[in-house]
């Protein structure tokens, strides 16, 4: 069934002018996600790495999570931060939220509650469902511990970040 799906996808891609390598990327990301879901983190890291290097935001996010937790790779907060930043710059809300947490806790970066709140604001604007509710909770909790000038600064940074389409956020 899977081969039929990819054959159909390949035919559709060729008919629309898409390049076959984009089909391979779809197949590879799916394979990497299956490995991750099965707990085969070493294989997942091997599969995600070239995709992340090619700029696939979801692969960058997964690698960030893997480096943050030490699953399949050596735990390395700075590497996690790098991958989260690359994915966040593409407008991907999950890593934006993770960046907020890393800045809030000082993981791989100097603790910076203003920058953390900025990332939470950016992520909250894009997340929904349970992830959105969790991000709102984190944002509101952090806000309750900050001064009005800090909050205003974070909101201004978030506005600039969003207006630049995530190019001037960090």
Keywords:
mainly alpha; 75% helix
Note down, in words, how this protein is organized.
- The structure is a single chain.
- The protein has 170 residues and is mainly alpha-helical.
- The protein has two domains: 1-76, no CATH class; 91-163, no CATH class.
- Helices cover 75% and strands 0% of the residues.
- The protein contains nine helices and no strands.
- It has helices spanning 2-16, 20-38, 41-53, 57-69, 77-88, 93-105, 113-124, 129-143, 148-163.
- Helix 7 crosses helix 9.
- It is elongated and about 45 Å long.
- The termini are far apart.
- The model is unreliable at 1-24 (pLDDT under 50).
Q: Quick recap of the structure?
A:
The chain is mainly alpha-helical and 170 residues long. It has nine helices and no strands.
Topology:
Blueprint (H helix, E strand, L loop, with lengths): L1 H15 L3 H19 L2 H13 L3 H13 L7 H12 L4 H13 L7 H12 L4 H15 L4 H16 L7
Helix pairs in contact: 2-3, 3-4, 4-5, 5-6, 6-7, 6-8, 7-8, 7-9
Please report which band the strand proportion falls in: under 5%, 5-15%, 15-25%, 25-35%, 35-45% or over 45%: under 5%
* Gyration radius over CA: 18 Å
Helix content: over 70%
The overall strand count is 0
Low-confidence stretches: 1-24
Coarse structural class: mainly alpha
Secondary-structure element string: HHHHHHHHH
Mass-distribution shape: elongated
Largest sheet: none
